Amino acid sequence: MRETRPQYDPTCYLCPGNKRADGSVNPAYESTYVFKNDFSALLPDSPLGEEANGLLISQAVRGECRVICFSPRHDQSLAEMEVPEIAHVVDTWADQITELGAKYRWVQLFENKGQAMGASNPHPHGQLWACDFLPTLAKKESEQQLEHYTKTGQPLLVDYLNQELEVGSRIVTQTEHWAIVVPFWAVWPYEYLLLPKRHVRRLPDLSVEERISLAEILKDGIGRYDRLFQVTFPYSMGWHGAPTDGEDHEEWQLHAHFYPPLLRSATVRKFMVGFEMLAESQRDITPEQAAEKLRAI
After folding, report:
1. Buried/exposed code over 1-30 (b: 16+ C-beta within 10 A; e: otherwise)
2. Which residues contact 118 (CB under 8 A, 6 or more apart)?
3. Where are any strands of DSSP class E within the chain?
């Protein structure tokens, strides 16, 4: 069943006008609101240095963590917001990446939605972690995209999406500017890969038209999740764009990953255990089956 929440919760740390965990008071914000994370995992003034002890090496890093409240309403998700409101969230994402990217090499924008994905607060919100290093997964993506671009002169994910659009069986939904596909290599049952149809390296590079189109496909794609099992669908979502290190990175293509844990119903969860944890991931349904179910909604 769908979760019922009040439009305003006086006990919520993220609602307008409420006191947060560190004693700060939120302003009476009326749209998207950004603030420094009260429990930041990365700090801009951490002492730098490296320590080595045989095989063990550690290195200090610097960064900043911020929280983005998508809406002042406690009872809404991205899928339940109106397209212009979602477009404002997209603009905020882009502005934050521009600001933090001027100081840091990588800006990781993400949303954890629902208790199943560790969200401590149901108020619609996401986070930004900016850091002075390239994280492991981002580095792997960067290396693979560069290798393909060096060989072909084309961005890997542009070529990949064109192939998926030609085949069609894993496409969930699309607009003039965007497409959602259950990727060929998907591990989670209803995993999404969200891609622009033209070559775009970073969120701030999107045109006004592309940002509105992105808001539309976000509402559509997440709405399909919610209707699949008639529940506010939990997921972890994150954007990957070219590193903000001053280089052009023509090999990079902007994209977002959606990793939802639900498998066969609102109460049956996919767990990564046993063989998957120790050897290799396996699928419970094929990406084609997943895409077909989501298209039909």
Report:
1. eeeebeeebeebbbbbebeeeeeeebeebe
2. 112
3. 33-36, 50-53, 56-59, 63-69, 106-113, 125-131, 171-174, 178-181, 192-196, 235-240, 255-259
Average pLDDT in the chain:
96
Please give the DSSP secondary-structure letter assigned to residue 10: T
* CA dist., res. 293 & res. 283, Å (int): 15
Q: What does the DSSP 8-state code read for residue 157?
A: H
Token pair 């409101």 in the structure block, residue: 85
The DSSP 8-state label assigned to residue 265 in this structure reads S
This prediction's pTM: 0.96
pLDDT band at 228 (very low <50, low <70, confident <90, very high): very high
Yes or no: say if 200 and 158 are a contact pair by the CB < 8 Å rule. Answer: no
Chain segment 73-93, per-residue pLDDT in tens: 999 999 999 999 999 999 999
Active site residue 125: yes
* pLDDT number for residue 2: 58
User: What length does the chain have?
Assistant: 297
Largest Cα–Cα separation, the chain: 57
Residue by residue, DSSP assigns 45-99 as: TPPP-EEEETTEEEE---EEEEEEES-S-TT--GGGS-HHHHHHHHHHHHHHHHH
- Give me the catalytic one of 74, 88, 125, 148: 125
